């Protein structure tokens, strides 16, 4: 019986997380770039490490997302010398991107820091 | 010009090559009197263009999901086809069986179709932010 519940719980959790994580990558990329400009591998490492492994992303997916963000001018890039080989693209948040991040956090993240919500979460 | 993506440019180059090949083949066949081959060659040209459009269209979407209901590819196809065709007619070696009237008619009919497509493109742009579909921008 307990095994049955565990299986249900795992399946339900996975289904919820799959849906929940779909829109999360943007926030993690913004967090990575808000900290400081980064190249793609650094962004990927930041996302995996800071999300404690709950988020993962392929480099190709990151490039595609960053191209979209550059296209709508919320992210920019500059070339800097790499350790070896060709110059690296360091991505950063533009002024528009920073404003967007702050507005999003204010409306969607700060609500979780209310005392009554925090007490429920704990 | 940000919508002029690398896959679209590659498609344009392939399309110019295909159209130039088609015009040369068509003129040669007509000049030599091989009229039975004209329709198969035209079908082959259409098929190759369709496959090229589908291949590069998918690559384009992977590169940057610009939401234009295929209008950029249609516009490029239209422009290159007529530039190559009129160029061949005026500066190349067209057959005596090829008349400018057929090209003009194609330009007008296709131009009307392109205008209808442009209308849907403008409608589709309402659901975009800087050409990217709102639903795909942060997915």
What does this structure look like?
- The complex is a heterodimer of chains A (122) and B (139).
- Chain A has 122 residues and is mainly alpha-helical.
- Helix content of chain A is 64%, strand content 10%.
- Chain A contains 6 helices and 2 strands.
- In chain A, helix 2 crosses helix 3.
- Chain A is globular and about 55 Å long.
- The two termini of chain A are 28 Å apart.
- Helix content of chain B is 74%, strand content 3%.
- Chain B has 5 helices and 2 strands, in the order H-H-H-H-E-E-H.
- Chain B has helices at residues 6-31, 38-63, 71-91, 100-125, 134-137; strands at residues 128-129, 132-133.
- Chain B has a two-stranded antiparallel ribbon.
- The relative contact order of chain B is 0.15.
- Chain A binds chain B through residues 22-23, 26, 64, 67-68, 71-73, and chain B through 2, 62-65, 129-132, 136-139.
| SSE-based structural type of chain B | mainly alpha
Count of DSSP strands of chain A = 2
From the alpha-carbon coordinates, what is the Rg of chain A to the nearest angstrom? 18 Å
Span between termini of chain B: 24 Å
CATH class of chain A: Mainly Alpha
Uncertain stretches of 5 or more adjacent residues of chain A: none
First and last CA, distance of chain A: 28 Å
Pairing-aware structural class of the strands and helices of chain A? mainly alpha
> What is the overall number of helices of chain A?
6
With strands numbered from the N-terminus, the spatial order across the biggest sheet of chain A is: 1-2
Biggest pleated sheet of chain B? 2 strands, antiparallel
Strand order of the largest sheet of chain B: 1-2
Keywords (chain B): Membrane, Transmembrane, Transmembrane helix
Transmembrane segments (chain B): 37-57, 69-91, 103-122
Domain Transcription regulator PadR N-terminal (chain A): 32-101
Protein name (chain A): PadR family transcriptional regulator
Helix and strand layout, with pairings?
The complex is a heterodimer of chains A (about 120) and B (about 140).
Chain A: H1 2-22, H2 24-35, H3 40-50, H4 59-71, E1 75-80, E2 88-93, H5 95-108, H6 115-121
Antiparallel strand pairs in A: 1-2
Chain B: H1 6-31, H2 38-63, H3 71-91, H4 100-125, E1 128-129, E2 132-133, H5 134-137
Antiparallel strand pairs in B: 1-2
Helix pairs in contact in B: 1-2, 1-3, 3-4
């Amino acid at each position: 019986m307990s095994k049955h519940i565990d299986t249900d719980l795992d399946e339900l959790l996975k289904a919820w997380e799959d849906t929940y994580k779909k829109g999360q990558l943007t926030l993690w990329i913004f967090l990575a770039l808000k900290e400081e400009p980064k190249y793609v591998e650094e962004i990927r490492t930041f996302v995996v490490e800071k999300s404690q492994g709950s988020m993962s992303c392929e480099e190709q997916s990151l490039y595609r997302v960053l191209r979209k963000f550059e296209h709508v001018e919320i992210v920019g890039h500059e070339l800097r010398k790499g350790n070896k080989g060709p110059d690296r693209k360091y991505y950063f948040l533009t002024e528009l991107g920073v404003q967007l991040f702050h507005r999003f956090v204010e409306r969607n993240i700060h609500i979780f820091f209310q005392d009554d919500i925090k007490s429920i979460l704990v | 010009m940000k919508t002029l993506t690398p896959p679209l440019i590659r498609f344009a180059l392939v399309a110019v090559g295909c159209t130039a090949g088609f015009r040369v083949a068509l003129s040669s066949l007509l000049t030599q009197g091989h009229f039975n081959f004209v329709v198969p060659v035209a079908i082959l040209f259409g098929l190759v263009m369709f496959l090229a459009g589908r291949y590069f269209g998918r690559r384009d979407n992977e590169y940057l999901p610009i939401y234009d209901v295929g209008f950029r590819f249609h516009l490029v196809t239209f422009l290159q086809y007529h530039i190559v065709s009129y160029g061949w007619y005026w500066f190349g070696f067209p057959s005596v069986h090829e008349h400018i009237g057929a090209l003009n008619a194609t330009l007008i009919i296709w131009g009307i179709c392109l205008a209808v497509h442009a209308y849907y493109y403008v409608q589709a742009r309402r659901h975009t932010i800087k050409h990217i579909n709102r639903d795909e921008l942060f997915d």
